[in-house]
Amino acid sequence: MSLAEVQDAVQAIQGWLDDPPGEAVVRQCIVLRLLLAAGFDIWNPQEIVPEETNAGGRRSDFLVRRGRGRFALEIKGMGVTLGNREYEQAVTYSVHEGSRWAVVTNGRKWVVLDEHLPGRYEQRAALTLEMGHDTEHFASDLYAVLSAEVWERDALEGAVAQVRARQQRRTDEAKIRREKTRVVEATQKEFEIATFGKAADAASKMGRITEAERDVLLGLGEGVPSAPQGDIEFTYAVGEARATAIYRPDDGSWTVKAGSTARRELLPGSSSRGVQNRRQKLLDEGVLTVLDDGLLVFARDLSHSSPSSAAADIAGGARNGWEVWRDTVGRPAQHHRPTKQAASP
Question: Which of the four pLDDT bands, split at 50, 70 and 90, describes residue 41?
Fold first, then answer.
């Protein structure tokens, strides 16, 4: 099993976030799927022990055992807010099983609890992961702590420390992008510099931003994927629909790639009429086809003049494409938007 399999599982699971499932679905379709992807043998009752009451009279949904490591896993429905009661249940079970670690999840949020931490049970949350738009980072962080290999070596303490460090770095980088992007954009406008990248380099040389801040803005920092060159790939997920589009900065075109899916239902509002008419034309031309699950799928690439037009086809109504399309680092398309287009979506 591998990180890629966890990433695939997370991408599939994210489609359920708009209609939160109950505990039974979270248990079977989310938790067990992710445990399997992380390398556990979910069919082995010696490794994944279901709902067993221990000698202390405590019970957890699963006791997960692998090599030297073990932890209690408590599962709730996705609509449940996790708190002190759920944490206490999992931690006390783990302690009776000789482990300092417990995990509580509602499928969307995953909390790693450490009995060695002082205070109330809520204060023993050593790490919190929550699924959202940034599925790539969520998947890699979850795999780091859920990997069967980590538990085989009983090495969770080091894994938690590494993920916490990554989270802090991402927080710091987000702050830099939030505060320093406007500095670079002002520099670009003031000196009429052609690209954001050249403006960032110029702002660094002028002392308006540091070199480290420049590297973060350009995606060149340590641990940050390199900024894409030339064509830029974006994704957009809404409900169960998943779409990929290629943006070409040179001509401003957007191309929704074949295999992308779109919601068949239309959003309320007058803009949906235009989407409906366009969709019917695309269906007649064979560009779009209807899948058995009710989604629409693009049979071939389809070009658009703007990200909002492309997003409307996916969502079934008006959407600001510069906000909803995300690059491979999780940044909105707005991050790559040419200055001259700033006035219109």
Answer: very high
Angstrom distance (rounded) from CA 191 to CA 160: 45
Q: What is the mean pLDDT of residues 235-259?
A: 89
Amino acid identity of residue 215, one-letter, is D
Q: Are the C-beta atoms of residues 299 and 286 closer than 8 Å to each other?
A: yes
End-to-end CA distance of the chain: 42
Tell me the pLDDT band of 341, cut-offs 50, 70 and 90. very low
pLDDT of residue 80: 93
CA distance linking residue 41 with residue 46, whole number of Å: 9
Asked if residue 260 lies in contact with residue 244, where contact means CB atoms within 8 angstroms, the answer is yes
Q: What value does the mean pLDDT of the chain take?
A: 86
CB 101 within 8 A of CB 94: yes
pLDDT, one tens digit per residue, over 102-156 is 999 999 999 999 999 998 999 999 999 998 867 888 998 999 999 998 999 889 9
Q: Find out whether 243 and 261 touch, Cβ atoms under 8 Å.
A: yes
Q: Tell me the angle at which helices 135-146 and 3-14 cross, rounded to the nearest 10 degrees.
A: 130
Written as six digits, the tokens of 11 are: 């991408």
What is the reported pTM?
A: 0.61
How far is the C-alpha of 153 from the C-alpha of 128, rounded, in Å? 22
Tell me the C-alpha distance between 9 and 129, whole Å. Answer: 16
